[in-house]
Amino acid sequence: MTEEGQSEIFQKMWSRKGFRAELRAASAIAIKQWKVELSYPLSVLWFIIMPFIWFIPYLIAGTALTGSSESIHLQDLTGISDWLSYIAIGTAFTGLALSLLWGSGFALRREQNVGTLETLMTTPMNRETLVWGSTLHNLQHGGLGVILQLGASVLIFGVSLNVWGILPALAIIGLSIIAMQGVIFAVVCIVLTAKQGWMIVEFLSSILMLVAPMTYPIAVLPPILQYVSVASPLTWTVEGFRGFLMYGLAYEGVITAVIALIILDVIFVIVGTLLFRATERLVRQRGALSQF
Amino acid sequence: MTETIQEPSTKSVESDMAYLTDFKPRIMDWSAARVFATKNLKIAIRYPANFLVWGVLPILWFAPFILMATAIAGPSTSTHFTNISGFDDFVQFSVIGWFVFMYLDNSIWGIGNNFRWEQFSGTLEPLFTAPVPRISILLGAAFSDSIQGTLQAIIMLIFAMFLFGVEYAITAIFPTVLILLIMVFALYGFGFMVAGLILVFKDPSVLTQLIAESTYMLSPIQYPVQALPKSVQAIAYVIPTTIGIITVREIAINGTMSLPAFVQSIGALGFLALIFWGLGMLSFKWAEKWTKERGHMGGF
Question: Is the pLDDT of residue B281 over 80?
Fold first, then answer.
């Protein structure tokens, strides 16, 4: 290639800006991640059966406890007696949440391990787009898992979903992604500074899962954990997602869930982005970007 | 500055040569196993927080089951659960199940990952050139994992007893130790199989996860074996921890167990130990041969 041609490419590359350019970069990262994952057949197999393997122990335990698909205790606590649908829809979201936390949170660590993080950091895209690209991939990856689990729950276990609630449930996921991105940025900060920060992330994700009302209402949590649960975006996402898929447009808690998510979106994404920018600057100043 | 190069003494070279010419392969080298286990434990002691973390984390994993049970069946018990399990407190039932299951989890993730760490540290190839039987290395890794796993399981049990307010019979300690010893011995064979997989696949995190989650699903931790479909119950009994959990739970909760049933459990675990050791050693030998033939031993 001639020098003139090269210079033209560089000029075009450096002049790129705006939302569409960042979106293109994010989808390139998402596609690259799919290519990597699909080259490991075992990962594909795990991805297909994972939602069932997580759900089935809850199903067996619930059947052993109640002997049927109805529970009077759950009805007293939530107004829903069908524990099977309650748990199937709640746990369907688990795969997506874990995929976002671990997949996106450790995306930069993976680049670091394969020696491409510094190169990626020199590309003319926003630093945050690196993480958003991974979120986009994990949203697709985890989203497929949600569809698989819900599909199997309907076909195999007889769970009934309200079709009118599907679009609003997707809107709830859309709202939750913004707040979850804040949590993901925090995880990235831990990974960038602590390098082997998986233990901290394991604690963080386990606590977030514990306080989320996936298989039980927050009323059964100890009071102190109920406060933590209210401040977690996962809580309102699961409540809204399940509410819409069970009751459709007649879901009563919609206003509370949406307002709570909007407030948490603003707080989490601002704090997360600021934390990420500060950490990234600090790590670069220390020259520790490619350190293991 | 003068550099002095020490020539190896003739006596030392002669003694090394004598060792090599006199060397006869042995079936088991206990001192090699002890050295390997001590080395692993020395490394583990350097990270004391790990013991606490791995002792506490499982509580965060099984607490959702207890909370779910509370939400759908009310606090502590349900008639249906008591009818099929014979126990009237599912919290007490689950905690002891998790305690025993931690040994299986440890054998799945521990022994094999030891070799992965050796690979990362660049010491796997030198380790496999050492003139000691492989079984010594495998057992060394297994011993150190068992000691660490026991500490973590005890920490978990103490925390869980305190958090959930459950109690177990003090008379259960001796029979529990006996059952756990035979079960752990059977699990070593299971661990050897996973170690072989790690030699072949290098980073079989997905496969290990699959084995861990499947065995978890089949083990009677949160629910009795009777809650599984009939066809699956037979598979559940092939996993050594199933008999271990059932027996330890019976003794720890009821404080007693009929002698014939106890002896039967020991016999069944002993039989499983023989089967798993045979399968484990065969598959590890095959994995080692396969890896060496392809020159993959130190590869990532």
Answer: yes
Q: Express as a percent the part of chain B with pLDDT over 90.
A: 16
B224 contacts in chain A (CB < 8 Å): 64
Distances (CA, A) of A225 to A214, A230, B63: 14, 9, 12
A108 neighbors A286 (Cβ within 8 angstroms): no
Alpha-carbon gap, residue A97 to B98, rounded angstroms: 25
**Burial (0-12, 13-18, 19+ Cβ within 10 Å), B215:** buried
Distance between CA B97 and CA B65 in Å, rounded? 12
Look at the block and give the residue holding tokens 């002891």.
Answer: B96
For residue B130, name the pLDDT band (cuts at 50, 70, 90). Answer: confident
- Sort out which chain A residues have CB atoms less than 8 A from B216's CB and list them: 57
To probe the interface with A, which of B68, B109, B231 has the most A CB atoms within 10 Å?
B68
Question: For chain A, what is the mean pLDDT?
Answer: 85
CA-based nearest residue to A246, from A74, A25, A80, A64? A80
Whole-Å CA distances, B114 to B40, B121, B130:
8, 11, 16
- Provide the token pair at A244: 């819409």
Instruction: Report the number of distinct structural domains present in chain A.
Output: 1
C-beta atoms surrounding B84 within 10 Å: 18
Q: Is residue A222 part of a domain?
A: yes
∠ CA A220-A226-A227 to the nearest 5 degrees? Answer: 170
The model's confidence at residue B297, banded by pLDDT at 50, 70 and 90, is low
CA atoms within 13 A on the CB side of A38: 8
How close is the nearest chain B Cα to the Cα of A67, in Å? 6
Nearest-neighbour CA in chain B from A123: distance (Å): 29
For A198, the domain range is 20-286
Q: What whole-number distance in Å separates Cα of residue B98 and Cα of residue B154?
A: 11
Asked if the structure places residue A3 within a domain, the reply is no
Q: Give bridge partners of residue A82 from the DSSP assignment.
A: A70
Two tokens, residue A96: 């997506």
Given pLDDT bands bounded at 50, 70 and 90, which one contains residue B2?
very low
Whole-angstrom Cα distance, residue B247 to residue B254?
A: 11
Model confidence pLDDT, tens digit, residues B183-235: 888 888 888 888 888 777 766 667 777 888 888 888 899 899 999 988 889 99
Q: Which of A200, A180, A210 is nearest to B60 (CA)?
A: A210
Sign of CA dihedral B64, B69, B72, B75: negative
Asked if pLDDT for residue A180 goes beyond 60, the answer is: yes
| Domain contains A186 | yes
The rounded distance, in Å, linking the Cα atoms of B242 and B110 is: 19
- The length of chain B, given as a count of residues: 300
Cα separation, B183 vs B104, whole angstroms:
9
How large a percentage of chain A has pLDDT more than 90?
25
In angstroms, the CA A133 to CA A122 distance is 16
Contacts of A206 in chain B (CB under 8 A): 57, 60-61
Predicted-complex ipTM score: 0.83
Angstroms from A70 CA to nearest CA on chain B: 9
Question: What is chain A's length?
Answer: 292
Asked, for residue A9, whether it belongs to a domain, the answer is no
